[in-house]
Design brief:
Blueprint (H helix, E strand, L loop, with lengths): L2 H27 L2 H27 L14 H29 L7 H28 L3 H30 L4 H28 L6 H13 L6 E10 L2 E10 L5 H19 L2 E9 H6 L11 E5 L2 E8 L6 E6 L10 E6 L5 E8 L4 E3 L9 E7 L2 E7 L8
Parallel strand pairs: 2-3
Antiparallel strand pairs: 1-2, 4-5, 5-6, 6-9, 7-8, 7-10, 8-9, 10-11
């Protein structure tokens, strides 16, 4: 049994124990807030069971029907749990409404506080553990479970405060009022969980830091390759999928190109751990000659993108040098969706923001000398890498 599955089984056991403590608190007090708290924990138990099933399914090896694995099952589990959290918030809101209409004093409040406090401490420790290991092990299901349980901790905290104040103030409506506040907090948390799970299901790219590392590793280990472009990533559970095109000299042998790809793949795996890497090797004639790329150091770079052919160049016409981006079709882009990052051989990187100049886009920041770097052009979710480096002529 893997460590992730052990954590999921532990989560189910903890949820059952906490559920027993909270229903005991409700049973001795008859409080609407404690009933709402116990109801929320019931969803925790169901969520823990859902996460357990999803984790088991996601760890199954790839098969003929799912050649890329089953990692997305975790995101489905996280989405289901998020929906349950939202449903629980509405259920608690309903109980709070009826409690406000018919307020009554809770029975033996301090005994209920003791049971609720015990459950809150157990939940807090377990939630912190799940959030930490969920991030470390890159498990969306465990991380979502930990965040869900953390909302339960907030619920318990609110209940404890309320029960301490009710005997002192005599305000019976404080009980349902606190339940309503907790419902709003849970609703917000459920929305955040749903947003994160949807990002995974929609094949969101790796975070900017990881993308920068991937580009740097490709650049540092490219050996005799000329350039890399169309670098794309997506994340599914703890697996990162990376694919890009690697341009090599036309006279490089298949064996040499294969060895180069193996070196790049090994370097990426050392950084990403669990990853599937696809490298498309293409000769220089197909990448540059067919598109009319210039061989000079600062000439324009023509790039075939998912939205058509664009031209990226360094413009120095009587002004400080800046990037200019033009589209063959005259298509305009939203400046916020276009960025350029440069990585120099020393590893120093710089980010450039773009603005629309009417007919073309131009970087707001100036380009410092020397103009020797790899430029990563990002248009929406796609990233394209081109070198502004003098290339040796190759014979064909």
């Amino acid at each position: 049994m893997t460590r992730t599955m052990k954590a999921a089984w532990g989560g189910l056991g903890v949820s059952v124990i906490v559920l027993g403590l909270k229903f005991a608190a409700y049973w001795v007090t008859g409080s609407v807030a404690l009933y709402s708290d116990a109801l929320e924990t019931t969803i925790n138990v169901v969520g823990a069971l859902t996460a357990l099933i999803a984790l088991w399914f996601s760890e199954q090896p790839a098969d003929a029907n799912h050649p890329y694995g089953h990692q997305k099952a975790e995101y489905i589990s996280a989405a289901v749990e998020a929906f349950m959290v939202v449903a629980t918030a509405f259920a608690i809101g309903r109980e709070a409404y009826f409690g406000w209409q018919n307020p009554r004093a809770p029975e033996t409040p301090f005994v209920g506080i003791a049971f609720n406090a015990a459950s809150g401490i157990v939940n807090l420790l377990w939630a912190l553990f799940l959030i930490r290991v969920g991030r470390r092990w890159r498990s969306p299901a465990l991380a979502a479970s930990g965040k869900h349980i953390m909302t339960d901790v907030w619920t318990s905290g609110g209940i404890l405060v309320g029960f301490a104040l009710i005997p002192l103030t005599g305000w019976l409506r404080l009980d349902p009022a606190l339940a309503a506040i907790v419902a709003i907090n849970i609703l917000w948390s459920g929305g955040q969980m749903l947003r994160e799970s949807m990002r995974g299901l929609m094949d969101e790219a790796s975070d900017p830091e990881t993308l920068t590392d991937i580009r740097r590793i490709i650049s540092e280990n490219r050996g005799g390759a000329i350039e890399a472009h169309d670098v794309r990533t997506r994340v599914a559970g703890n697996m990162t999928f990376v694919e890009f095109h690697l341009v090599v000299p036309g006279d490089m042998t298949v064996d040499a190109a294969h060895g180069l790809c193996d070196r790049i793949e090994a370097a990426l795996l050392a950084r990403l751990k669990d990853a599937s890497i696809t490298i498309h090797v293409e000769p220089e004639s197909q990448s540059t000659g067919d598109h009319g790329w210039s061989d000079d150091r600062e000439g324009p770079r023509q790039i075939t993108t998912g939205v058509g052919i664009v031209m990226l160049k360094i413009y120095e016409g009587g002004s400080p040098p800046r990037f200019r981006l033009l589209s063959d079709s005259g298509q305009s882009f939203e400046p916020r969706k276009v960025t350029i990052e440069t990585v120099r051989p020393s590893g120093v990187w710089r980010r450039f923001t773009m603005t629309d100049r009417g007919g073309y886009m131009e970087s707001i920041e100036e380009i410092p000398e020397p103009h020797v770097f790899t430029a990563y052009l990002k248009i929406g979710a796609e990233t394209y890498a081109v070198d502004f480096v003098k290339r040796a002529q190759t014979s064909h």
